[in-house]
Specification:
This protein is mainly beta. It contains no helices and 12 strands. The strands form 3 sheets. It has a 6-stranded mixed β-sheet, with no helix packed on it. It is globular.
Length: about 120
């Protein structure tokens, strides 16, 4: 059964750092581009960062230079190191394959984790 579990959210002050982790199961990570997405209140979900199996990365302009995505295929884990956080980084963060993994023809998403940046 495909599953993404994304613990690691929480409250952080502006300028702070936080590391998110994502445990993927039910499929082999090696074959996929993996990404972090986020959805801020009242906004659509957006791609934040992605990483290929070979380690090539790309980032949304809004997080470039502040966020770092990484993966550990041996553990089926994906990480997002967030630094120099801003209040506008407040969102629910999700990991997923890119393109989005489908189950019975429908996009599958985990529960995500809320990251709040506030003083």
């Amino acid at each position: 059964q495909v599953q993404f579990v994304e613990p690691g959210g929480g409250l952080v002050q502006p300028g702070g750092s936080l590391r998110l982790s994502c445990a993927a199961s039910g499929f082999t990570l090696d074959y996929y581009v993996i990404a972090w997405f986020r959805q801020a209140p009242g906004k659509e979900r957006e791609l934040v960062a992605a990483i290929t199996n070979g380690g090539s990365t790309n980032y949304a302009d809004s997080v470039k230079g502040r966020f770092t995505i990484s993966r550990d295929n041996s553990k089926n884990m994906v990480y997002l190191q967030k630094s120099s956080l801003k209040p506008e980084d407040t969102a629910v963060y999700y990991c997923n394959t890119n393109p989005i993994i489908k189950i019975r023809g429908m996009d599958y998403w985990g529960k995500g984790t809320l990251g709040t940046v506030s003083s």
